[in-house]
Amino acid sequence: MKVVFAGTPEFAREALAALHTAGFQIPLVLTQPDRPAGRGMKLQASPVKQFALDHGIEVAQPHSLKLDGKYPDEAAAAKTLLESVNADVMVVAAYGLILPRWTLQLPRLGCLNIHASLLPRWRGAAPIHRAIEAGDEATGITIMQMDQGLDTGDMLLIERETIRPEDTTATLHDRLATLGGRLIIEALELAACGGFTPTPQPVEGITYAHKIEKAEAAIDWRLPAAVIERRVRAFDPFPGATFALNGETVKLWRTSVVPASGAPGEVLHAQGDTLIVACGEQALALHTLQRPGGKRVMTRDALQAIGTLPAHLA
């Protein structure tokens, strides 16, 4: 089976690597254009592009695939290239570009998407973050036949993954990326023997995983401690939960809920490596902080570097 792959971040790279290891023929990879990153803001290739180049796979990086969009010449060139490779299927994982109708209809078996949720829950851009933030007990991977809706296509395979109490977006991401690589291979093997049984998504239980915005990072101590604790884990590694302390923006990486009370934002206890702050309900023990541009450190060291604690955290 000849597979075109479209994806950009590490989540997609894991699936591409699994397909390559399994021996699928991959004549072409689509990924987003290089973006500036790091302190020097130099152009960086995506993880998918890096893998493709390392393994001699041709790479295309159009800004858009819309023939009537802002980059019609790039879209037309991509269309010509896709037609020339004559793929049986396109596998899509966190590509980041909208696939127009001509793209969905071009391969013989259409386009299969690796989505990191149990659809129809958490359609959209940030399903891993939102599942943790919402306190879901489980998430998973859905292999979906793509249509023109937002993650609305028929489901082909689905597998559940438990969300552990200590999971962050980073740790859950890694397990789901591995699971996605395994399931897409199963899906393609089923496709090769005509074993697909597409299942329409339920009309109940639809939720949308909106993109994570930096503005969401600021901690509101008026919220219940359990809500804040989930957000801290959901926003690790990006954008990182933050609060103001003596004029500095501090990132908070590890917390736990404790049975204590006080005015929201009040520092109830600060000794050793434990800082306990009152919330709207119960309190939060802050375990790992980070000053701007610094390494993640234990609370005691961070507080000594920043200075005296205020009675309330801003």
What does the model show?
The chain is of the alpha/beta class. The chain has two domains: 208 residues, 3-Layer(aba) Sandwich (Rossmann fold), CATH 3.40.50.170; 93 residues, Formyl transferase, C-terminal domain (Methionyl-tRNA Fmet Formyltransferase, Chain A, domain 2, Roll), CATH 3.10.25.10. Helix content is 28%, strand content 28%. It has eight helices and 17 strands. Strands 5-2-1-6-7-9-10 form a seven-stranded mixed beta sheet, sandwiched between helices. Strands 12, 13, 14, 15, 16 and 17 form a six-stranded antiparallel beta sheet that branches. A hairpin with a 2-residue loop joins strand 14 and strand 15. Helix 1 packs parallel to helix 2. It is elongated, with a radius of gyration of 22 Å. The mean pLDDT is 94. This is Methionyl-tRNA formyltransferase. It is an enzyme of class 2 (transferase). It catalyses: L-methionyl-tRNA(fMet) + (6R)-10-formyltetrahydrofolate = N-formyl-L-methionyl-tRNA(fMet) + (6S)-5,6,7,8-tetrahydrofolate + H(+).
* Low confidence ranges: none
Number of helical regions:
8
- Count of folded domains: 2
Summarize model confidence as the mean pLDDT: 94
Under the CATH scheme, which class of the largest domain? Alpha Beta
The CATH topology of the largest domain comes to Rossmann fold
